[in-house]
């Protein structure tokens, strides 16, 4: 009984913010991300559903819609996360809220990574192997592959949907760890790291080969290849800025806790991990800006519908341009 009480006390201490002023700054950043990302993602979702009707498209619109949908899941979590930080806690004190938050956060992360990766692979085949038939090119014409991706993400999310994952208590010696606990901890951390590192390797491979294809093309129109390079490079920027830093920070935090280093080192590692996790929430803001708007056609439709005063020309010409651009966007890959 005493061991249980001690474990509960340690767990509570692990989830308390050691520097409350700094966590209030984290909360401010989270609120700013939420304020900027909410109207942006809402407008993009509205455009996909009511203007482009993505389900009728034979392009990457289906993948992009699911990417924005994944980012929308994260938006529901940000106000709660900001409130916890303001209260001086790293997570919610409610077990149900904590599990729901972790489920949404990691489902968002997994879906964002998956759809960014799938779309980059599709672009790789279109550019590097344009004449080769591939399964992805056939499947992307229907929503089945997107549904399959969401279903595959669910079992990968379950291992992370635990309280002690949020407070990073994996492989702690003071928990009286057993073999089963070590195996569960190892599996949970393996899911977390594989979910980021494996897609990153795939993205590097696709990027290198697309750039190489561009450098070898001496004749013909290079515009499509340049857009492809910009697209995959943009995805690399999102990964490098949002996902890799928090992954490295978690690895450092695990090393600090496994080797039982000094308390000050552990506090620093915890704050760094939480701060970089806040940075990872930027993906819901960067995905629409960097990925969707890398297409000039999509950008034209977006501005024509939501910011027509920024588009030069008469209203009649604008309406014709809007209709023509929408039709082109449905008929051509983004």
From TrEMBL:
It comes from Channa striata (Snakehead murrel). It holds the Pfam family 7tm_1. GO terms for molecular function: G protein-coupled receptor activity. Its main location: membrane. One of its GO terms (cellular component) is membrane. It comes from the Eukaryota. Keywords: G-protein coupled receptor, Membrane, Receptor, Transducer, Transmembrane, Transmembrane helix. The chain crosses the membrane at residues 26-50, 62-82, 102-125, 145-162, 190-208, 229-253. This is G-protein coupled receptors family 1 profile domain-containing protein. Residues 40-291 form the G-protein coupled receptors family 1 profile domain. It is found in: Membrane. Belongs to the G-protein coupled receptor 1 family. It is a multi-pass membrane protein.
